[in-house]
């Protein structure tokens, strides 16, 4: 609790000095019978107490200022252990209390920061991803355990020149780092070939540019994904084979019975059904073969008008706007196959057939084909997986239509995009780069 403010203490001291000077001046005037001596005594009586009181008040303030100065220097150097003895009930005491509270908060924050840094360092050091931080001069300033094991036989890398380390590394790693970007490479590691993903990022640390290299081992993950993909392929193929072989087996047995009965009319139905199932099975196998052995695109000049007219003979649609008068460069057969698959999906989407439309746009850099419908669209999960091979939500779907579209687009250097439409439906965008 504040007893008396510093301003109050100064006012009290001044008032006491004035009273003492007045008393001494009156005494000098009466007893010495001289006004001038009274004035002189008054001034002397006023100055001496003022000096004494000023000294008494300034000494603790000066000592506090010196203590604060030393404490601020300690804070600047990261030492927050200093505190100042308090006990005063004025503004100076409040300043001391605020200073001590600031020191306590800074000590706690530093302890929390130290704990977070310790946790982060533990996580980074034990992550399987190799991390190397290189300053602008080319020296390594940080490398975790995985980086030491991969690049320096487990020894520390701090302070080493990164270019010298890379020079002694396997050639694929050196080429990947020299590219300046992200990429995959394979090197012998721990007695087997290991595939790594390299990521390089530049950022500023304490105002200076640094480069962070991340090398992640992918062989085990790729092997797991490969096994999972093969299992899915086997399940899909087994399902389709069983769907065709089971009725063929049953129909063969029925055909044998009809031959014995000489029922030629019903026997024709049996053979027609067997032929239909074998044709379906053949188309299914050919679809997988086309996906696995997609030939290199052979771009040619294609006029949009005849191209769209040829598509309309397979599935009806309406054209949104006039097609470009210029020609585009792409493999006509492959792109035609893609758009036919997209039109087939649009007709199976559950929307009205007369709402299916195809829009074509072309610029100097790319050609764009949009196939839109007013069906049910796709959920977020389906949108995220629709372009993956063998992923299908249809009971009889192979999961190759959109995957094949993506393969053909990427073989051309393009891309495929899926987006739900406002008001319902889906738009599939097929983009092909154009080179002048």
TrEMBL record:
SMART domains: HAMP, HATPase_c. Pfam families: HAMP, HATPase_c, PAS_8. Residues 59-111 form the HAMP domain. Coiled coil: none annotated. It is an enzyme of class 2 (transferase). It is found in: Membrane. Keywords: ATP-binding, Kinase, Membrane, Nucleotide-binding, Phosphoprotein, Transferase, Transmembrane, Transmembrane helix, Two-component regulatory system. One of its GO terms (molecular function) is kinase activity. Residues 236-436 form the Histidine kinase domain. It catalyses: ATP + protein L-histidine = ADP + protein N-phospho-L-histidine. The keyword Transferase applies. Its EC number is 2.7.13.3. InterPro entries: BphY/WalK/GraS-like (IPR050351), HAMP_dom (IPR003660), HATPase_C_sf (IPR036890), HATPase_dom (IPR003594), His_kinase_dom (IPR005467), HisK_dim/P_sf (IPR036097), PAS (IPR000014), Sig_transdc_His_kin-like_C (IPR004358). The chain crosses the membrane at residues 35-58. This is histidine kinase. It comes from Dokdonella ginsengisoli.
């Amino acid at each position: 609790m504040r007893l008396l403010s510093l301003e109050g203490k100064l006012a009290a001291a001044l008032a006491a000095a004035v009273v003492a000077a007045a008393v001494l001046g009156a005494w000098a005037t009466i007893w010495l019978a001289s006004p001038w001596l009274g004035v002189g005594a008054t001034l002397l009586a006023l100055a001496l107490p003022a000096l004494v009181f000023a000294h008494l008040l300034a000494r603790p303030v000066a000592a506090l200022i010196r203590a604060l100065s030393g404490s601020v220097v300690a804070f600047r150097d990261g030492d927050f252990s200093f505190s100042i003895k308090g006990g005063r009930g004025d503004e100076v005491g409040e300043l001391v209390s605020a200073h001590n509270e600031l020191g306590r908060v800074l000590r706690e924050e530093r302890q929390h920061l130290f704990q977070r840094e310790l946790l982060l360092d533990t996580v980074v050091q034990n992550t399987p991803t190799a991390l190397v931080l290189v300053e602008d001069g080319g020296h390594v300033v940080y490398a975790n355990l995985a980086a030491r094991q991969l690049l320096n036989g487990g020894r520390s890398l701090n302070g080493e020149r990164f270019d010298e380390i890379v020079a002694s590394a396997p050639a694929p790693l050196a080429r990947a780092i020299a590219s300046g970007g992200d990429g995959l490479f394979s090197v012998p590691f721990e007695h087997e070939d290991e595939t790594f993903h390299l990521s390089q990022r530049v950022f500023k640390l304490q105002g200076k540019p640094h480069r962070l290299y991340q090398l992640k081992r992918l062989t085990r993950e790729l092997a797991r994904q490969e096994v999972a993909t093969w299992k899915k392929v086997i399940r899909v193929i087994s399902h389709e084979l069983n769907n065709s072989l089971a009725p063929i087996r049953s129909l063969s047995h029925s055909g044998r019975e009809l031959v014995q009965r000489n029922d030629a009319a019903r026997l024709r139905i049996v053979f027609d059904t067997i032929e239909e199932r074998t044709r379906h099975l053949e188309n299914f196998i050919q679809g997988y073969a086309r996906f696995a052995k997609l030939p290199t695109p052979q771009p040619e000049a294609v006029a949009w008008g005849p191209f769209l007219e040829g598509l309309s003979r397979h599935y009806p649609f309406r054209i949104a706007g006039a097609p470009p008068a210029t020609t585009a460069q792409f493999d006509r057969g492959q792109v035609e196959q893609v758009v036919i698959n997209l039109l087939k999906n649009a007709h199976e989407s559950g929307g009205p057939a007369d709402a299916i439309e195809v829009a074509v746009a072309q610029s100097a850099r790319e050609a764009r084909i949009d196939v839109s419908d007013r069906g049910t669209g796709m959920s977020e999960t389906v949108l995220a997986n629709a372009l993956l091979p063998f992923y299908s939500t249809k009971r009889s779907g192979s999961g190759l239509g959109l995957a094949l579209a993506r393969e053909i687009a990427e073989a051309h250097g393009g891309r495929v995009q899926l987006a739900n439409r406002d008001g319902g439906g889906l738009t599939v965008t097929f983009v092909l780069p154009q080179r002048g």
